[in-house]
């Protein structure tokens, strides 16, 4: 997930960040990790260049009246994998991971509604995300390999994968969650989000688009991860950030600028009713095999391991990625590739 790292705004202004923090609360490498490059691309290793050079097929799939962005790699007829990104992210968060999996699988990566190049909605719901995922799996040919696809979801995307597994076990062979937590943001961030919502409650422009920046270097300076962390690999952060941008008219009408490709009101529009119902009678029974890959230094995973509320099965496979925070594909991308390859080769039985 990523967010806008703009400096603090006056109370009367509109703050479009998912989680607001005052300047000085975060070190520079967390607050604005790409600022030192001033728009230049960080040097990247050859494996990364080779991976992103394997361009996917890009198209849109219609689901519930919404266009959903879909990327695909590999041959139809191989076992299917559906990759789902985190909050405020997009399908290209998997574009340097998917080519390593496409040697043995038909791989698809989708942008959730309200994110990436997918259309925005008036409301978002877990059951709708599940229908979108099924539509993408069908359109990508993920069922053509002789078995149902395996869903793999990071963070917020992992919660969508879990909901789909619990609600529609007939649609998937297994589910892999990547550093997935439940119950919303931690208490301090939740309080800050509520304070931000109160500040903008009576401002008539609360549903406007993200800020528009005059050029890409300026926009890149505003990029940071959420939950906040210093990126393990800046070349990955830069790639993700650039793929997070789209052109939009400048607010003063002087021309075109750049803005973020996610609905800033998504979190407030999200209907959690269906997800909450899963746990009304206690831990939900999930018939689909589930595994969890998490960052050893991730605060999201640590809250769950320390007894935080979670609907996940207690007996599921768990794999810790050393020296990784929440965004494993940024911190330890090749370790994530290795973990997924090994897991999928031997599991589920």
UniProtKB/TrEMBL annotation:
InterPro entries: AB_hydrolase_1, AB_hydrolase_fold, Carboxylesterase_BioH. Residues 1-41 are annotated as: Disordered. Keywords: Hydrolase. One of its GO terms (molecular function) is hydrolase activity. Gene3D superfamilies: alpha/beta hydrolase. Residues 12-23 have a biased composition (Basic and acidic residues). It holds the Pfam family Abhydrolase_6. Residues 81-339 form the AB hydrolase-1 domain. PANTHER family: HYDROLASE ALPHA/BETA FOLD FAMILY, PEROXISOMAL MEMBRANE PROTEIN LPX1. This is Alpha/beta fold hydrolase. It comes from Phenylobacterium terrae. The lineage of its organism: Bacteria, Pseudomonadati, Pseudomonadota, Alphaproteobacteria, Caulobacterales.
